[in-house]
Specification:
The chain is of the alpha/beta class. Helix content is 39%, strand content 16%. The protein is built from ten helices and 13 strands. The chain has a seven-stranded parallel beta sheet with strand order 3-2-1-4-5-6-11, sandwiched between helices. Strands 7-10 form a two-stranded parallel sheet. Strands 8-13 form a two-stranded parallel sheet. Strand 4, helix 4 and strand 5 form a beta-alpha-beta unit.
């Protein structure tokens, strides 16, 4: 499947990952349709600024549309012919799921159902969808592997992402839709989400305000730079899954199936201590943080680390951006975008 000939739908196109993916796909010659509901979960102005960078591209079209809009999604799939769909639209955030749980059901469950039905009735050749490292929940065996059982989530957000994996497999089984799920690990970088820790840390440190450090700093995250995430997604788009001939119901592998279904982790495979992460931001800013040391929040997990062996084996792709390099690029963007020094 030649990527340059693809007609690709990207949901959540004004989002952090969605915007970067659209831009990359346009660079390699794909025809891209982006949709986004432009909600106010975080700064709509930032979403509009992202879209402004790609809005004039010849092969890009944008529609303001929510994946929760059943009739709107049905019409989209009837009027357009997509080779591939990449579903990045979702209600994000672990902590927000404690405040507004219904938003996660509306978007991540009902909205994803509309995606699956659209793919089913329009002959989409490959559905790629965003899952999350959050699905590993109470798992403690490191690194997290797509071959591990993930039946013990600790947030509703994680439960909806696990549900997406199950729903996608069901549709792959019933209708032979090739589907690939991607478990992203703590994505960061320019044009990022203001609700993410690195973004909030940078803003607070620059303003001389204290930052909240949960679990008293005893956290580890597999921070993954946005360009690495996008590079992995592009590789996966071009690799339509096939049934695994070695899969057996007697010893079911959670990462593959007897139908065209695959799961991959996309992470840096290099967990970083939270205090080291904060120190890297401090170095990039040239300013020390004031820290509020707090207990772990409900729904958080103390550590994440991605086993990416399957991704490397099947696509040849391996994330390569070092944390110090990635944080510097984010801080440089932050200073320019907000006009602060």
């Amino acid at each position: 499947m030649e990527l340059s000939s693809n007609n690709i739908l990207i949901t959540g196109a004004a989002g952090f990952i969605g915007f970067h993916l659209c831009r990359k796909l346009l660079e390699v010659g794909a025809v891209v349709t982006g949709i986004d509901n432009m909600n106010d979960y975080y700064d709509v102005g930032l979403k509009k600024a992202r879209l402004a960078l790609i809005g004039d591209e010849e092969n890009f079209s944008f529609k303001k549309l929510s994946i929760e809009d059943r009739e709107g999604m049905e019409l989209l799939f009837k009027t357009e012919k997509f080779d591939c769909v990449v579903n990045l639209a979702a209600q994000a955030g672990v902590r927000y799921s404690l405040i507004n749980p219904y938003a996660y059901i509306d978007s991540n469950i009902n909205g994803f159902m509309n995606i699956l039905e659209g793919c089913r009735h329009s002959g989409v050749k490959h559905l790629v969808f965003a899952s999350s490292s959050s699905v590993y929940g109470l798992n403690t065996a490191m690194p997290f592997s797509v071959h591990h059982n993930v039946d013990h989530p600790v947030s509703l957000y994680a439960a909806t992402k696990k549900s997406n994996e199950l729903m996608a497999h069901t549709y792959s089984y019933l209708y032979r839709i090739p589907v690939t799920g991607l478990r992203f690990f703590t994505v960061y970088g320019p044009w990022g989400r203001p609700d993410m820790a690195y973004f909030m840390f940078t803003k607070a440190i620059m303003e001389g305000m204290p930052i909240d450090v949960f679990n008293y700093g005893k956290m580890q995250r597999d921070f993954t730079y946005i360009d690495d995430i996008v590079g992995g997604v592009v590789k996966v788009i071009g690799r339509v899954p096939e049934p695994d001939p070695e899969w057996s119901g007697d010893r079911p592998d959670t990462a593959s199936s007897c139908v065209p279904y695959r799961l991959y982790n996309i992470g840096n495979n290099n967990p970083v201590d939270l205090m080291e992460f904060i120190g890297t931001i401090e170095d990039a800013l040239g300013k020390k943080a004031k820290k509020n040391m707090l207990p772990i929040q409900p729904g958080d997990v103390p550590a994440t680390c991605a086993d990416i062996d399957d991704l490397v084996r099947d696509t040849g792709f391996r994330p390569a951006t070092r944390l110090r390099e990635g944080i510097k690029k984010f801080v440089d963007w932050y200073r320019e975008y907000y006009g602060v020094m």
